[in-house]
Amino acid sequence: MMKIVLASNxxxxxxxxxxxxxxxGVQLVRQSELGIPEADEPFHxxxxxxxxxxxxxxxxxxxxxxxxxxxxCVDAFGGLPGxxxxxxxxxxxxxxxxxxxxxxxxxxxxxxxxRRAALVSTLVALRSADDPEPLIACGRVVGDITQxxxxxxxxxxxxxxxxxxxxxxxxxxxVEIKNANSHRGRAAKQMLxxxxxxxxxx
Length: 202
Known about the structure:
The chain has helices at residues 11-21, 46-61, 98-108, 175-181, 183-198; strands spanning 3-6, 27-30, 65-74, 116-126, 135-145, 161-163, 168-169. It is of the alpha/beta class and 202 residues long. The protein has a single domain (3-198), classed as Maf protein (Alpha-Beta Complex), CATH 3.90.950. Helix 1 links the parallel strand 1 (3-6) and strand 2 (27-30). Helix 1 (11-21) crosses helix 5 (183-198) and helix 4 crosses helix 5 (183-198). The model has no long low-confidence stretch (mean pLDDT 94). Its cofactor is Mg(2+).
């Protein structure tokens, strides 16, 4: 079974991606389990940061690597917080964390009518640290930011991301439906196809 290092320490991401990549028969291992420190993410685009994380994890581990850079792009804020999503709360006087991110976002959006936003996930996979042909997959889900959190499933901005096609937030959807339709789920589906085609995985 091929072992791939996941360039993330986020437990929520690991569980979600393990479920999504199960059909390939690969084993995703979190970089922290291999003693790999987090990489710097100095860039302004998801793809550049994901590539930096994947190259770092692959270089230190000697294994193929998979990295995800994801975030929330709010129309009313010109696409921000974007790559700074994980640290959104800290820019508004709160400690880093999912719940505080949601709190800060709802505060910043008070009185704003245009509540359209996209959750974006970019996955990058490398066979080796210097792979000249990284596999890149992007998933995007567009919805509206609710006035208050609704639902208890998921993590991140799931409780405030309302999806018109379901009439619910991500946090109200069963896990398997969320995974199949989330930004990360869409990116993972593309990535599975790319790995099958280019890496000759099952």
